[in-house]
Structure formats: C-alpha cells, structure tokens
Amino acid sequence: DVKVTQSSRYLVKRTGEKVFLECVQDMDHENMFWYRQDPGLGLRLIYFSYDVKMKEKGDIPEGYSVSREKKERFSLILESASTNQTSMYLCASSLIIGRAYEQYFGPGTRLTVT
Amino acid sequence: AQTVTQSQPEMSVQEAETVTLSCTYDTSESDYYLFWYKQPPSRQMILVIRQEAYKQQNATENRFSVNFQKAAKSFSLKISDSQLGDAAMYFCAYSPNTGNQFYFGTGTSLTVIP
Q1: Which chain B residues are closer than 8 Å to A47 by Cβ?
Q2: Which of B37, B98, B102, B108 best probes binding to A when mutated, by most A CB atoms within 10 angstroms?
Q3: Nearest 5°: CA angle at B14, between B11 and B15?
Q4: What is the distance between the alpha carbons of residues B105 and A44, in angstroms, rounded to a whole number?
Q5: How far apart are CA A86 and CA A90, in angstroms?
Q6: Longest Cα pair distance anywhere in chain A, in angstroms?
Q7: What is the DSSP string of A20-60?
Q8: Following CA atoms A49, A55, A61, A66 in sequence, which dihedral angle do they give, to the nearest 10 degrees?
Q9: For A47-83, how does the pLDDT look when each residue is reduced to its tens digit (9 = 90+)?
Q10: A95-109, B29-43, B77-91, B96-110: lowest mean pLDDT where?
C-alpha cells in the first residue's frame, strides 16, 4: 500500500513564526502536492512538484514556499505565519506526469496560528 | 480555467437506501479524468472511484457507481445500500491527462441515518 505521512497531525504556532510542514511518501511517486482545505472552499492547491528540485505554483502560493531535495520528501514552508493561514494542510503524491493516476493523501496537518 | 462544482453541501440518506451526489465541471479539454474521493471524519482522504473521459462506460466499484455525462459535463456518484461507514465528506475532482493538476469541488457532507 502507498503510504503518505505528514510530520504532525496538529500544530500550533505564533504569528510571525517560520513553519515547516513535512511530507514523505514511500512509493517512488514523481508528483507531490500541497493543498489547504477550508470548510466551504474544498481543497485548494498551493504548490506541486513533478521532480526533485522542481516546483510549480498552484492556485494560492502567496505566503508559502516549498522544498523538494529528495524524491520522497516534499516540504511546505510558511515563511512568516499569519492567522489567515490557520487551516488543514494535506499532502498528496501521484505517479509520473503524463498519466493522471489518482492521488494518495496523507492524514493532514491541522495548523493553528495564534 | 477548469472548475468543479458540487451544489449539495450536505446530504443525508437512510441506511440501506440509495443516494446520489452531484458534480459538474467545466473544461475545454477532451481527454481528462474524474474522481470521487471520500474523507471520513478525522481520517485520511481515499479514492472511491475514477472515470476516464474517453471511456463511455460508467465506472463502478461495488456499491459505488457513477453517471458520467460528458456532453453535459456532469459526473454524479451513486451509493447503493448505504452503510454507516459511508458517512463522510465526498469530493469530486477533475484532472487533465497531464496528471499534474487536480481540481476539487467544495465537497458534500453525507450523513447516514440508522
């Protein structure tokens, strides 16, 4: 079974802190994604990566950056956390670009910024 | 731009009955994929069913089936013989055949009444 893990289930940070959310997948998937999930808004794509060191902006990249130094790991960085970044963050992975296989999701990180 | 619309924020169904969740999407592409994902309360998002646009036959997975109407850009999910474990948030998603973008609807919260 594909396994996508996220470093924390719950996280509480203060405004202005730098926040790292880590995601690891164990199935050698090329594509990895970061979404945020808010009630009534569904899932919105922040960034995705189709290869090591490659990244593309999604729909809402402002205030976020990402890092992918190894194929299995994709990190989301909040450079200076703000209260409007309080949300559920979901990581996902999928197979190579060019084939729209389904995504496999991690359990999510519920981030609260106070 | 591709959009996915789920017009039913909440639905309920009696146990053992059938329920249909609606989804419409907008795209100018002819080759794409459609998905239904299930997110149980406090649990990981998992794939329920997938439809490839070039296939005219509707996908089925046990008690789950879809009604794919390509011309109408409609993709509804039918759950037969509903069970308590079907209670969850259901998301409809679209992906172009490049596999590097997934667009999600806002979700439908399904309650199963014993």
Answers
A1: none
A2: B102
A3: 120
A4: 9
A5: 13
A6: 41
A7: EEEEEESS--SEEEEEEEETTTEEEEEEEEEETTEEEE-S-
A8: 80
A9: 999 889 899 999 899 999 999 999 999 999 999 999 9
A10: A95-109
Its sign, for the CA torsion A26, A29, A32, A36, is negative
Integer Cα distance of A33 and A68 in angstroms: 11
For chain B, what is the total number of helices (H) and then of strands (E)? 0, 12
- Give residue B43's pLDDT band: very low, low, confident or very high (50, 70, 90): confident
What's the pLDDT at A100? 58
Q: What is the pLDDT of residue B55?
A: 86
| In chain A, residues 44-63 whose CB comes closer than 8 Å to chain B | 44-45, 48, 50, 56
Q: Is A99 near chain B, with CB under 8 Å?
A: yes
How confident is the prediction for chain A on average, in pLDDT? 91
- How far A60 CA sits from the closest chain B CA (Å)? 13
CB of A27 closer than 8 Å to CB of A73: no
Give, in order, the Cα–Cα distances in Å from A73 to each of A23, A52, B42.
6, 9, 23
Pick A100's closest partner by Cβ from B95, B105, B106: B95
Contact flag B106-A45 (C-beta cutoff 8 Å) = no
Residues in chain A closer than 8 A to B9 (CB atoms): 40
pLDDT at A96 (0 to 100)? 60
Q: How far apart are CA B95 and CA B104, in angstroms?
A: 9
